[in-house]
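User: Hey, quick favor. My workstation is busy. Could you predict this chain's structure for me?
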Amino acid sequence: MLTEKLVNLNADMGESYGRYVLGNDEALIQHVKTIHVACGYHAADPGTMLRSVQLAKRFGVELGAHISYSDLMGFGRRRMILSEAEVFEISVYQIGALLGFCRV
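Assistant: No problem, here it is.
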């Protein structure tokens, strides 16, 4: 007897910023179980984060924080020299921002 296996397919979303629209989150979200929302350091802005949380709720998908270094110009790809404390602090900051949008 074959057992059905489920895969939690996920996608990074909410990477638009200001007037720049990146990706097609509404089309993609229909095919995933989890999204990771950009939290404003490498991509996204507060409005995009809120819309991403609302989209996840509408489609009943789980969400997580897609945190990054503070690097909008390099899209989080440039090398940065940070202490462990700084990495912890920016991580907590970004997760807290997303949590705030989830709570409202």
